[in-house]
Amino acid sequence: MKFVKIYSLRIYTAEDVVCGDEPFYRALLEECRRQKIAGGTLVRAEEGYGAEVRGMEESIRGIVFSGSYDRPVVVEICDSYDTLARLFPFLEKHGDLHFLAVIEAKHALFTRYMDECARRLGREDEVHLLDRLDSQ
Fold it and tell me: Which residue did the predictor score with more confidence, 89 or 118?
């Protein structure tokens, strides 16, 4: 086992942000499954705040990205940069919704569990790609 370079895409939104007829976070997770992205986690936060813009004034209040007092939601997805980049068109398509997407490089311990997941997803060849990315 060794540490490899991976990327984390974190999306901040709220429970009431809707994409079509379902919550945005659910549509996002479904798109991740469809794209065979390695893994993601949804966290419903107890509280959060964001900047609410009204006209020319900006004020910070106890509301999240949706503009309501609904609970904040964070979705974190981890995979290679190239694989996460397949989500960019989905995010751009829904860019009119209230969310913030942040991507950053991280180092993760490549465990047997990650190896098994890659095999289940039919992505064994990408395991070797991670080795090459790690050396960069």
Answer: 89
pLDDT at 62 over 70: no
Within 8 A by CB and 6+ apart from 103, the residues are 7, 8, 9, 10, 81, 84
CA distance 6 to 46: 28
- Distance between CA atoms of 60 and 70, rounded to whole angstroms? 16
Q: How far is CA 36 from CA 10, 102, 111, in A?
A: 17, 20, 19
Beta-sheet pairing, 2-14 with 18-19: unpaired
pLDDT in tens, 66-78: 455 578 999 999 9
Segment 96-103 mean pLDDT: 94
Question: Could you tell me if 5 and 73 are in contact, meaning their C-beta atoms sit under 8 angstroms apart?
Answer: no
Q: Quick one: 72 exposed, middle or buried, by C-beta within 10 A (0-12, 13-18, 19+)? A: buried
DSSP annotation of 104 reads: E
